[in-house]
Automatic annotation (TrEMBL):
Source species of the chain: Candidatus Moduliflexus flocculans
Domain MoaB/Mog: from-to ranges: 179-316
Keywords: Magnesium, Metal-binding, Molybdenum, Molybdenum cofactor biosynthesis, Transferase
Pathway: Cofactor biosynthesis; molybdopterin biosynthesis
Entry-linked PANTHER family: GEPHYRIN (PTHR10192:SF5), MOLYBDOPTERIN BIOSYNTHESIS PROTEIN (PTHR10192)
The protein's name in its UniProt record: Molybdopterin molybdenumtransferase
Cellular component annotations (GO), alphabetically ordered: cytosol
Gene3D superfamilies xrefs: MoaB/Mog-like domain, MoeA, C-terminal, domain IV, Molybdopterin biosynthesis moea protein, domain 2, Molybdopterin biosynthesis moea protein, domain 3
C-alpha cells in the first residue's frame, strides 16, 4: 500500500500535456490555449458614443444649465453601424446612438436625459468637458497587444474576446480520449432486464460523466466478463485511447483479472493498492503502451479514486495548470471514528454558517452507498494517524462541485 500523495505523483509524472489542435470557437469552451493571441486591430476600432444622446462640440456648451440651456440645431440622426459624412459646425448637434462612431467636429456626447428636443433644435442643460461619454478607439484592446497568453483556459469571456478579434479558430491542447471499461459477470447494461443475481453497470456512467466534466472524451466499451479472454478482447478495443480506465477486478477476489493483465508480458504494473478509504484496491500500469488505471469496483470507491488520481491526470493532459480541486478548512459537525491507518475521504455537505465552514456527513459511508455520494458536495479528509476526530475539529475538505460558492449563505 502506498500513500495517496505518492500514488498521485507516480500517476501524474507519466502524463504530459497533449499536442495542439485547431478548433472552432464553438468547441473551445474549457480548452487551454497553445498559442498567444495578438490583437490584429483596436477594439473598439473607432471612437464612439457611450450613450444614446447628442454629439456636440463641448466648446458650444459654456454656461449651459437647466435654467440657461444652450440651443443647438439637430442636423442628422446617426444609428450605430453608420459613419456620418457631416463635419459638425458650431451651433450644431447630431442625434447619436450608443456605439455609433463620433462624427468629425464633435468631441463630447450629451446623454438624452440632459436634453429636450424642440422641433429641429435641442435644448442642452449641461456643460461637458471634451471626450465626455465618449469611448476611445483601443480602450479595450490595442492592436499588437497580447490579449490571451498560452496556457489560458477559455471561459465564455475569453471566447467572446476571441470572436471580437475576428478569431473563429484557435489552437488548443487536444482532449484526452479515455476508454472506460466496466468488468464483472454480475453487470448488466442500464436498459437490460435485471435478472437474478445481477446489478446494473453504474460505474461506466458515473466515470463517463466525470470524464466529460473534465472536458475529456469518454470512449465507452462493452462490459467485460470476468475471464482473461474477454478482458483481453475488450482491452484490445482501447488501443486508440490516451488512457484506459477499468472498474472492478483489482481486488482480492478469485475472478479479479485486471491486476493479472497488468502483470503479463507486454504490460507494466507500477503500483497496486493505495492507503485510502474508500479506494484501496487501485492498480496503475500500462497495457501495450497505453496507461491503465484500474479503479476499484465499488461505485463510490471508483468515483473517489477518479477524483484523486484521474481527474488531475486528465486536466494535466489538457494543459491546465490548476489540476487539483479547491480544498477548504471546515469543522466537522459530528464525531468521526476509524480503526484503520488509512486516509479517509468522507462524503460531506459543506455549508457556511456565520462565517464558519461546517462539514456534515451525508450518511452511511460504505463504499457501495452511491446515494450518499450524490448528496455530497465535498470530501472531508481524515488523516491516516487519526482514530477519533471530534465534533468541531477542523479538517480539510476537498470541494467536489467547482461551481460551489463558499458564500452561498450570505446575501449580497
Ligand atoms: P470488484 O472489485 O470487481 O469485486 O467489485 C466490487 C463491488 O463493486 C462489487 O459489489 C461489484 O458488484 C460492484 N461493482 C463492480 N463494478 C460495478 C459497476 N460497473 N457498477 C456498479 N457496481 C459495480
Ligand atoms: Mg468484479
Amino acid at each position: 500500500m502506498i500513500p495517496v500523495k505518492d500514488a498521485r505523483e507516480r500517476i501524474l509524472e507519466r502524463f504530459l500535456a497533449l499536442p495542439a489542435e485547431r478548433v472552432d470557437i464553438f468547441s473551445a469552451l474549457g480548452r487551454v490555449l497553445t498559442e498567444e493571441v495578438i490583437a490584429p486591430f483596436d477594439i473598439p476600432p473607432h471612437d464612439n458614443s457611450a450613450m444614446d444622446g447628442y454629439a456636440v462640440r463641448s466648446a458650444d456648451l459654456h454656461g449651459a444649465s437647466p435654467e440657461t440651456p444652450v440651443m443647438l440645431r439637430v442636423v442628422e440622426a446617426l444609428p450605430a453601424g453608420y459613419v456620418s459624412a457631416h463635419t459638425l459646425q458650431t451651433g450644431e448637434a447630431i442625434r447619436i446612438m450608443t456605439g455609433a462612431p463620433i462624427p468629425d467636429g464633435a468631441d463630447a456626447i450629451i446623454r438624452v436625459e440632459d436634453t429636450q428636443k424642440d422641433g429641429e433644435r435641442v435644448a442642452i442643460f449641461v456643460e461637458r468637458p471634451p471626450r465626455f461619454d465618449l469611448r476611445s478607439a483601443g480602450e479595450d484592446v490595442r492592436r499588437g497587444d497580447v490579449v490571451l497568453e498560452k496556457g489560458r483556459t477559455l471561459r465564455p469571456a475569453e471566447i467572446g474576446l476571441l470572436a471580437s478579434l475576428g478569431r473563429s479558430f484557435v489552437s488548443v491542447h487536444q482532449r484526452p480520449r479515455m476508454a472506460i471499461l466496466a468488468t464483472g459477470d454480475e453487470l448488466v447494461e442500464v436498459d437490460a432486464p435485471l435478472l437474478p443475481g445481477k446489478i446494473i453497470n453504474a460505474n461506466s456512467y458515473s466515470l463517463a460523466a466525470l470524464t466529460l466534466e473534465c472536458g475529456a472524451i469518454p470512449l465507452m466499451l462493452d462490459i467485460a466478463r470476468d475471464t482473461k479472454a474477454d478482458l483481453e478482447g475488450k482491452l484490445a478495443q482501447a488501443a486508440r485511447a490516451d488512457l484506459i480506465l477499468t472498474s472492478g477486478g483489482v481486488s482480492m477476489g478469485d475472478f479479479d483479472f485486471v491486476k493479472e493483465m497488468l502483470q503479463q508480458s507486454g504490460s507494466e504494473m507500477h503500483f497496486w493498492q493505495v492507503c485510502m478509504k474508500p479506494g484501496k484496491p487501485l492498480a496503475f500500469g500500462s497495457i501495450a503502451g497505453t496507461p491503465l488505471v484500474g479503479l476499484p469496483g465499488n461505485p463510490v470507491s471508483s468515483m473517489v479514486s477518479f477524483e484523486m488520481f484521474v481527474r488531475p491526470a486528465l486536466l494535466k493532459m489538457m494543459g491546465h495548470a490548476q489540476i487539483f480541486r479547491t480544498v477548504v478548512s471546515a469543522q466537522l459537525t459530528s464525531d468521526y471514528r476509524k480503526r484503520d491507518e488509512r486516509k479517509h475521504f468522507v462524503r460531506v455537505v459543506l455549508c457556511q454558517q456565520e462565517g464558519v465552514n461546517l462539514a456534515t456527513l451525508t450518511g452511511e459511508q460504505g463504499s457501495g452507498i452511491l446515494s450518499s455520494m450524490a448528496k455530497a458536495n465535498g470530501l472531508a479528509v481524515i488523516d491516516e494517524s487519526r482514530q477519533l476526530v471530534r465534533t468541531g475539529e477542523t479538517v480539510p475538505v476537498m470541494l467536489l462541485d467547482s461551481s460551489l460558492s463558499m458564500s452561498a449563505e450570505r446575501e449580497f
